[in-house]
Amino acid sequence: MASIGQIIFGSMIVLIFLMSGLIILLLAIAFGAGGQGFLRTTTRSPVGNLGQDVVLDCSFSPKQNSKGDVSVTWEKVGITGVVYRYQNQAPDLVDQNAEFKGRTQLFRNVVASGNASLLLQRVREQDQGMYQCSVSAPSGRGSINIHLWVAAFSAPEFKRTGSSLTAEAQRWFPKPNVAWEDHAGHALNGSTKFFNNSAGIFRVESNLLEPANRDDTYTLVISNPLIRTVSMATLTGESGVSVKTDFTFNTASPRLLSLSLVPALLSLCLLLP
Ligand SMILES: *[C@@H]1O[C@H](CO)[C@@H](O)[C@H](O)[C@H]1NC(C)=O
Ligand SMILES: *[C@@H]1O[C@H](CO)[C@@H](O)[C@H](O)[C@H]1NC(C)=O
Ligand SMILES: *[C@@H]1O[C@H](CO)[C@@H](O)[C@H](O)[C@H]1NC(C)=O
């Protein structure tokens, strides 16, 4: 018969093993396993706009004047088959996953010069996830992970009627927050309605609840966890509005989140025994 002490000791060991496994997994996710420097990307976490095309960027240094063959394979974590494969100077789509049929391409005329980027067309919600670009070339081989996020976003359009100002943005997903500010960054009251279309994408309609003055600038911020748009609308003349919209993608935070989880779990482990 095992004593209570032995059982507790045994469970602690198991727990520590589980925790260590989890930490290693998190570290692997946080630092992107396998980017050995041969492959590069300008965007590790691109955001695809639902229904539109997105490029997953992946590039390598080719060998000068090399006639050797380049093979490029794009895979997605959690699905069978490939997203796209290119070898012997031609697409090889025998084991392409059906989800990606007819929606993926490489930029074939620039593959030999080091561009292995994937063009993914008509982005769908289920395309979100971790992709792996693997290249084997005379100059080296390697793979790199790229996380695609999927959202919907569009710049708002403004309408001015007398002293009332309204804004309308056609496509947002996930559902955004909407806020108005004056030129000094002070919050202004607004009223916002969301219309959810059949695809689950929101149309946003927002009214500024205070009189809008000629020559003043009003700021409308539409944001969800992935995207933030800041639109500055300046009322010009009797009825004009001139607008400038900036988009910011906020995809660094999910990675930071997993990084900050690591110390939290580590300290939990240290506290347990
Ligand atoms: C690869 O080529 C495509 C198409 O010309 C381009 O959009 C993309 O920016 C290129 N990527 C790099 C890293 O040059
Ligand atoms: C917004 O509206 C509320 C209620 O109508 C009012 O109490 C508040 O002062 C308003 N805020 C601003 C910044 O005008
Ligand atoms: C939006 O509409 C879709 C499909 O009509 C529905 O599945 C979804 O639950 C709706 N979402 C919200 C937040 O109302």
Report on this structure.
The chain is extended, with a radius of gyration of 25 Å. It has 2 domains: 36-151, Immunoglobulins (Immunoglobulin-like); 157-250, Immunoglobulins (Immunoglobulin-like, Sandwich), CATH 2.60.40. It has helices at residues 4-31, 108-111, 252-271; strands at residues 39-40, 47-49, 54-56, 59-60, 71-76, 84-87, 90-91, 104-106, 118-120, 129-137, 140-151, 157-161, 164-172, 177-181, 187-188, 190-196, 202-208, 217-223, 227-236, 240-249. Helix content is 19%, strand content 41%. Residues 29-35 and 253-271 have low confidence and may be disordered. The protein has 3 helices and 20 strands. The strands form 5 sheets. It has a 6-stranded mixed sheet with strand order 2-11-10-5-6-7, with no helix packed on it. The chain is α+β, with helices and mostly antiparallel strands. Strand 16 and strand 17 form a beta hairpin. The structure holds 2-acetamido-2-deoxy-beta-D-glucopyranose (3 copies). One of its GO terms (cellular component) is external side of plasma membrane. Keywords: Disulfide bond, Glycoprotein, Immunoglobulin domain, Membrane, Signal, Transmembrane, Transmembrane helix. This is Ig-like domain-containing protein.
